Structures are given as structure tokens and as C-alpha cells.
Amino acid sequence: MRDAVIALALVWVAASGTAVVLTRDPLHQAFVAGFFGLCLASLYLAMQAADVALSQLVVGAVALPFVILLSLAKVRKPE
Q: How many beta carbons lie within 10 A of that of residue 16, not counting itself?
């Protein structure tokens, strides 16, 4: 059962990583990258690395998309 959960998480990581690469719009890419971070956190959790999963959740799923969105707002701001 554990191997099936890890295999499913690996498929999610591969699919979401491919989606990040194929997404062209930076705004959409930030959201897809956040989903990729969630998928990685689920993979780490399935592999019983809860501390790494928590770090990935905070950095990859929350902080990174937030920083990307803030930088996009700064760049796209009309002057």
C-alpha cells in the first residue's frame, strides 16, 4: 500500500513539474508552481519525511508563489 501511495505521489510530481515548465504566463506559472510544491510535500510525507514535507510546504507552496506574485505586481505596475 505504501509503495502505491509513493508511486501516485511521484506521478503527481512529474505531471505538475511538467505543467510548470509548459505554462507560459508567469501569473499562472506561480500558481502551478505552488501546486508543484504541494505535490512535493505530499511525496515527502508519503516517504515518511515529515520535517522535509513541512519545510517544502512552507517554502515551495506558500513563500515562493507569494514572492513571485509580489514581484509580478511590482513589474506590471503602471507608472
A: 19
